[in-house]
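User: Hey, quick favor. My workstation is busy. Could you predict this chain's structure for me?
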Amino acid sequence: MITFFTFCLFGMIGLHVYLSIEHGIFRASELLPMNSHNPFDFRELFKSFHSDAIYLCASLFSGLIYYGFICEALTLPISLTLGASLILSVYDFKSHQFPVFLWLFFAVILAIFYPVPVTFWAWFILAILAEIFPLKIGAGDFLYLALVSFSMSFIQSVWLIQFASLFGIIGFIFGKEKEIAFVPYLTIGYLMTLLLVQNHLL
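Assistant: No problem, here it is.
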């Protein structure tokens, strides 16, 4: 339990600081107390913690992933895919961007330790086509599905897409944005499909 909450704490701080630097809230040098205006005043560093629950939820989710892995409730491919889903979802939700290098980092790790499934290349080719032709779906969504193929079969991925589309439609109806970030919905679909698989319903 101590390990779980420790991981949550450092996950929250690390993720918040990383995204803060990425989005220009702080410069890297300002994270060092000796370079701040007041070395003993950390309010500026954490001033947006209370105003954005996304980072808190993300840190708790990362803690659950870590806890599930060390308890052997989650396999390594599932744990890595969930970790990638967390980062990619936050990126897509906050800035509608898909960091390909982060995706590549997780994909390479999985490809080193596990055989690359055929469906990976199918989704990868679709991602290239989506980048070239207007398929009304982002290439990042196909790349995410390629990553999922390490831990799910093609049929399970189809169920994932169905769940993601359902929640995406609901989010579009009740949301205010004309363009939705679809990776978070794919992550929800992945979680729901995992739940069904674990309960032998798929």
